[in-house]
From TrEMBL:
Domain Aminoacyl-transfer RNA synthetases class-II family profile: from-to ranges: 33-337
Family stated for the protein in its record: Belongs to the class-II aminoacyl-tRNA synthetase family. ProS type 2 subfamily.
Taxonomic source organism: Temperatibacter marinus
Subcellular location: Cytoplasm
Top-rank lineage group of the source organism: Bacteria
Catalysed reaction equations from the record: tRNA(Pro) + L-proline + ATP = L-prolyl-tRNA(Pro) + AMP + diphosphate
InterPro entries: aa-tRNA-synt_IIb (IPR002314), aa-tRNA-synth_II (IPR006195), aa-tRNA-synth_II/BPL/LPL (IPR045864), Anticodon-bd (IPR004154), Anticodon-bd_dom_sf (IPR036621), Pro-tRNA-ligase_IIa (IPR002316), Pro-tRNA-synth_IIa_bac-type (IPR004500), Pro-tRNA_synthetase (IPR050062)
Pfam families, per the entry: HGTP_anticodon, tRNA-synt_2b
Gene name per UniProt: proS
Stated name of the protein: Proline--tRNA ligase
Length: 435
């Protein structure tokens, strides 16, 4: 992509309404713009990151055996009246009526709808287990939308729903999501810690929140320092393996302030870390809380009808964009982990008016593109300083700077955005390095 053809409205100044790094940098890097309180337009650069995060979430869900569907954003109020949550949900739910006065709502979550879909189609235990998920926009009329996409009103969530014939089988579905979440967040360069959590309006008694440690997190968290040593890139092939990994990760103390109790916490002070965290995922096992009132039952092995055992599993896809920036930035801007970076390389032409330099950059750009590498090529006539600071701001993992002086010596300068390290090499070596 050439910067001259891109839509990249970067800002030099910190916008007045932004307080935390991720919000400031997402606005300054031209990733999003607010269109109404807590409601955002994703501009090209931001959308590329959102899609990369979505892809990682999708790959890990599919790998864990979940099946992708796409439910609508608008739901009928009838289903929520059946489950009893229509009144309970309160003002966070955006209620709408259509021209025929039918009561609708913009979905804040999908337990009711998926339970309805499931119960209309699945009648026998032989069709279980099933786990269905989608990645869809949600709306919650938050009292205080803030921190940009971190607490929006409209936000992108991955939500999965598992259906099993027994509580034991349901537990394995829960464990499969638990282990998938460990991998999902690790692949985005995040250390997300599973913590025992309150189940809130979703209900049930088994639940973990996944939190990324960051000073700007909204939850206070307490955890054993031993978490640092666990490897989240787990591979599992059986229910026993999954249970054993979940046991390992849950044997160590970790709790949010809602659950933490200094009286009962048995971790030595020297081992207990206190900090703040951003909730990026939340998983629940709630048995028949929805299947019973909504009549979602299947025929069991003995021919009797049983209510299915359900769990639900959310990932805050759009919140993760902010969460990743919170844990990876410096004073100059964002530092994207390669797995979610909008482009891998920023190619900077420092000799804007020098024909040789332009020709050389055009050629290098074409070769990088041909090698399948995602490159953002600053081919504009802006000054060198402005180009470097814009590249630092948008945080691509690598920068290749080409100037007339280097060209004379046959070298380009390759900079690692994270370490700041700069190395001169031939264009050929640069191509090999990134191919
Ligand atoms: P929070 O405690 O932050 O309000 P929640 O517990 O209400 O979140 P869940 O119902 O558990 O949220 O939804 C699943 C995931 O969706 C959360 O873990 C979070 O990552 C994301 N999420 C929830 N609310 C928002 C929001 N207003 N903006 C962006 N992401 C959100
Ligand atoms: Mg909430
Ligand atoms: Mg919460
Ligand atoms: Mg939650």
């Amino acid at each position: 992509m050439r910067v001259s053809r891109y839509f990249l409205p970067t800002l030099k100044e910190t916008p007045a309404d932004a307080q935390i790094a991720s919000h400031i940098f997402m606005l300054r890097a031209g990733m999003v713009r607010q269109s109404a309180s807590g409601i955002y337009t994703w501009l090209p650069l931001g959308l590329r990151v959102l899609k990369k995060i979505e892809d990682i979430v999708r790959e890990e869900q599919n790998k864990a055996g979940a099946l992708e569907v796409l439910m609508p954003t608008i739901q009928s109020a009838d289903l929520w009246k059946k489950s009893g949550r229509y009144d309970d949900y309160g003002k966070e739910m955006l209620r709408i009526s259509d021209r025929k006065d039918a009561e609708l709502l913009y979905g804040p979550t999908n337990e009711e709808l998926i339970t309805d879909i499931f119960s209309n189609e699945v009648k026998s235990y032989k069709d279980l287990p099933k786990n269905l998920y989608h990645i869809q926009w949600k709306f919650r009329d938050e009292i205080r939308p803030r921190f940009g996409v971190m607490r929006g009103r409209e936000f992108l969530m991955k939500d999965a729903y598992s259906f099993d014939v027994s509580a034991e089988a349901g537990r394995d579905s829960y464990n499969a999501m638990f282990t998938a979440y460990l991998r999902t967040f690790a692949r985005m360069g995040l250390k997300a810690m599973p913590m025992r959590a309150d189940t809130g309006p979703i209900g049930g008694d088994l639940s973990h929140e996944f939190l990324v440690i960051a000073e700007t997190g909204e939850s206070e968290v307490f955890f054993h320092k031993g978490f640092e040593d666990l490897d989240p890139m787990v591979e599992t092939h059986s229910a026993e393996e999954r249970q054993s990994i979940v046991d390992t990760w849950t044997s160590m103390y970790a709790a949010t302030d809602e659950i933490h109790n200094p009286e009962t916490c048995d971790v030595a002070d020297s081992d207990l870390i206190q900090g703040r965290g951003i909730e990026v995922g939340h998983i629940f096992f709630f048995g028949d809380k929805y299947s019973a009132p909504m009549g979602a039952s299947v025929q069991g092995p003995d021919g009797k009808l049983v209510n299915v055992q359900m769990g639900s599993y959310g990932v805050g896809v759009s919140r993760l964009v902010g969460g990743i920036i919170e844990s990876s930035h410096d004073e100059n801007g964002i530092i994207w982990p390669e797995s979610v970076a909008p482009f891998k390389i920023g190619l900077i032409n420092l000799g804007g008016k020098n024909d040789d330099c332009v020709a050389f950059c055009d050629d290098l750009y074409a070769q990088l593109e041909a090698a399948g590498i995602e490159v953002l090529y600053d081919d504009t006539k802006n000054g060198a300083g402005a180009k470097f600071s814009q590249m630092d701001l948008i945080g691509l993992p690598w920068q290749i700077a080409v100037g007339p002086r280097g060209l004379k010596n046959g070298v380009v300068e390759v900079k690692n955005r994270k370490t700041g390290e700069k190395v001169e090499m031939t264009p050929q070596d640069a191509l090999t390095k990134f191919s």
